[in-house]
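Morning, I've got a small favour to ask if you have a moment. It would help a lot if you went through both lines with me. I owe you a coffee for this, so here goes:
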Amino acid sequence: MKRRVDILRSLEVEAYRMAYYLLEAEEPACEAAKRALLGLHGEAELARATPEERRALLKRFVMREAISGFGQATARAN
């Protein structure tokens, strides 16, 4: 079985790509990807999941963090 850290490393670039696609800005995308990967680290099913299931989990976490971060950035701007 792959170590959790190795799994997360294999998802780093994809997490950033997803976040950048949603946010269209480098710094918020990096932060959203980082928070998503940290959240994904705690998922019990991560180690047992297939690559497709991992990508779906990642997508869910990235979307949540991108939306959360977008709302915080908007609040700071106003």
About this structure: Helices lie at 4-23, 26-41, 51-77. The chain is about 80% helix and 0% strand. The radius of gyration is 13 Å.
